[in-house]
Specification:
Structural class: alpha/beta
CATH class: Alpha Beta
Radius of gyration: 21 Å
Number of domains: 1
Distance between the termini: 36 Å
CATH architecture: 3-Layer(aba) Sandwich
Strand order of the largest sheet: 2-1-3-4-5
CATH superfamily: SGNH hydrolase
CATH topology: Rossmann fold
Order of helices and strands: EHHEHEHHEHEH
Number of strands: 5
Strand content: 5-15%
């Protein structure tokens, strides 16, 4: 679980007769045409963007089609970018967990990784220097594999105290500067703290809240992409 930081159908087994083709309806009018099935895009072989994170990336509380990686995919499609977005978010993950699985991300040979981790570290009041070390190790491993990287900045509520909250937030800024990584200043900007854009837990964005997340991601991500 994570923080807002800032702060099939079923069948019955019976055989049925094929549906009759549309024909004239009573009164001589034509029956409406059947709805067209959704278009399925084959993205096999397209460069991969991995959304690497925790429950904010996974999309806790929303259907898979409306989480941020899915909405990002839709936005890329709309803009004519041929990339396949992979959701590598795990609910409750910390930077410790991310560091343990970063090589699995490297093995997928993505073109870009959007690194969104640290929020759970902050909510738990974990050591900021340790969080920084974990993020730094992930950045180094990804860059060593020549993977382009975007870092998602996070914030935590002020009740953790000014020294901790400032140190936490500054960590992302400092790492982005040190390793020349494009930074999303605040991943949840526009959605954090707004009840109408978050699930009842007050933490995870709704589908509408993820619209703002995609708006935060795109200006930082787009310069790394090719059409």
């Amino acid at each position: 679980m994570i923080v807002v930081l800032a702060m099939g159908g079923c069948g019955n087994g019976k055989q049925t007769q094929p549906a009759a083709a549309p024909g004239p309806a009573p009164g001589g009018t034509s029956a409406p045409a059947p709805a067209k099935p959704p278009v399925t895009v084959d993205r096999t072989g397209w460069p991969v963007i991995i959304a690497f994170g925790d429950s904010l990336t996974f999309g806790q509380g929303v259907v898979p089609e409306r989480n941020y990686p899915s909405q990002l995919q839709a936005e890329l499609d709309k803009r004519g970018y041929k990339y396949r977005v992979v959701n590598a978010g795990i609910s409750g993950d910390t930077t410790d967990g991310g560091l343990a699985r970063v090589q699995n991300v490297v093995k997928q040979k993505p073109d870009v990784v959007i690194l969104e981790l640290g929020a759970n570290d902050g909510l738990r009041g974990s050591s900021v220097p340790l969080m920084r070390k974990n993020l730094e190790d992930m950045i180094v491993q990804l860059q060593k594999a020549q993977i382009k990287l975007v870092l998602a900045g996070m914030q935590i509520p002020p009740n953790y105290g000014p020294e901790y909250t400032q140190s936490f937030q500054q960590t992302f800024v400092d790492l982005a500067k040190q390793y020349h990584v494009p930074l999303i200043p605040f991943f949840l900007d526009g959605a954090a703290g707004k009840p109408e854009l978050n699930n009842p837990d007050g933490i995870h964005p709704t589908a509408e809240g993820y619209v703002f997340v995609v708006k935060n991601v795109m200006p930082v991500l787009e310069p790394l992409l090719k059409k």
